[in-house]
Amino acid sequence: MNYTAIIIFIVVAILVEWGASAAFRGWAKGKSAWFWIYGILTVLSYGFLISFPWAPGELRYPLLNAFGIIFFGKLLATLVLTIWLGVNEIRSLISSPENTVSESRRSFIKKGSAVVGLVPVGLMSWGIFRTAGNFKVHTVKLTLKGLPDSFKGFKIVQVSDIHTGSFFSHDRMEEAVSEILEQHADIVVFSGDLVNNRTDECYEYMDILAKIQAPLGVYSTLGNHDYGDYEGWKTKEEKTQNFQDMLAVHQKLGWNLMMNEHKIFERNGEKIALLGVENWGANLRFPKYGKMNLAYPGTEDVPVKILISHDPSHWEAEVLKDYPEIQLMMAGHTHGFQFGVEIPGIKWSPSQWVYKQWAGLYENDGRYLYVNRGLGCIGYMGRIGIRPEITVFELS
Length: 396
Hints:
Order of helices and strands: HHHHEEHEHEHEEEHEHEEEEEE
Number of strands: 14
Number of helices: 9
Number of domains: 2
CATH architecture of the largest domain: 4-Layer Sandwich
């Protein structure tokens, strides 16, 4: 146990509670009911945090999110109050050393800080209960060099990063699956991260996910979260069994799990190839399980090759350099950080500070990478500005 981190958190929490309560007192002065509400929410939020390690798996993320939303609002209120009040005190002393900020001014600053703290609480709650279930279909029309005539109009639906461990609504999952089926794709592709940490997170959604079908099949790969690397297993055997269970899940769903292999589709004697590799990340924090040297052989003479690889950093780090014949790579992983701005003329997210290619379509000399924004969530169970995505590729 990291006692230093615990002590630092306790100190920070005390400071945050002091500042947030000061801001709240200024806003709710004379309204005793609000003090009770504030106190109850505070006690509950720390109860959520304390109970997190012992909570059942399906409750862990909701508990952590409930605490995080309340704590973040308080943290922001404290920061605004401290900076705002500090600046005003310094300005008052500079203009007249014997003066300090008036009581009315202090009251205004406290009220303003409390309101600022409430904004992220409302916004993050909206992101969970509304935006996270507001699926968006992105249609991408691609002209691939050498595409055989028999495959003109070939339609692929890509889904990525379902993260069933953070899903909390069967209705939402049903809606997403219905949206996928309405696209009438030739094939459906899933580019990894079915769960957060453990295979058993997806069991309650399997009946719904099994409805995903396509005339030429459903093809899947593994993401970094699908290996059980982020769970504290008691034994090595438990982790091994968890991974075997993950492989069995894909089989039971009727998905063709591509473990460093390829599939060739043929129409009228013409061919295209679909390659799928395990997770391969350029960042040292993520494993390099993917083996293109196993997936590629046998596709050399196929004119169009499409790759499923979970982590978009794989594209520049290996695919572009060593396998330039790959015309399209489909990835996920970034979620677009689940936070950002995507409006005409503006595309921004903190994700771009970590990943050069983080959402949407990228091109390099006629070769394409598409980064799906993900269907589910990880950590924060909502989305702000970056909607969950279902991608439809129409090839020409």
